[in-house]
Amino acid sequence: MQAFSEKFPIKTQIRVAWGDMDALGHVNNVSYFRYFETARIDFLAQTGLLEILSDPSTSPVLRDTHAHYKRPVVFPDTLIIGTYITDIKSDRFTMRYEAFSEQQQAVCTTGYANVVMFNMKSAQKTPIPANMMDVLLQYSVDLA
User: Fold this and answer.
1) Of the CATH numbers 3.30.1490.150, 3.30.420.40, 1.10.3900.10, 3.10.129.10, which one belongs to the domain with range 2-138?
2) What pLDDT score was predicted for residue 21?
3) Is there a contact between 136 and 43 (Cβ–Cβ < 8 Å)?
4) CB-based contacts of 76: which residues, under 8 Å, 6+ apart?
5) CA 109 to CA 142: how far, in whole Å?
6) Nearest of 140, 43, 47 to residue 89 by alpha carbon
7) What's the average model confidence in pLDDT over 93-113?
8) Residue 6: CB partners within 8 Å, gap ≥ 6?
């Protein structure tokens, strides 16, 4: 757990609910997308990006989102979702997630979301604002 915690400056704790499980007795795959959504918004809040994005005319929009299931998780458990940024371009970036199971002491699921900046008035992609770019770069990891 300590190595995981040190790897991620931004982490979100999520308690697995009984209702997150499916008929097979483990957390349903769709639950991870809600967990990642919670981690994504928490990342924005913890880094101050939520305030920067308070102008509703420009917004980050998901292009796509993915999950890779490594280990089944069951209730009761607590997941720690570590979030970081990769692949920053002028108008988009990727948010990556790793879900660590406290019960199993292992990463159980990884995922990512490709995020595009969007001008809500013109309905077109738009460059990432400079003040937002500065924050994204602080939490960026080069995977190459």
Assistant:
1) 3.10.129.10
2) 96
3) no
4) 15, 16, 103
5) 20
6) 140
7) 98
8) none
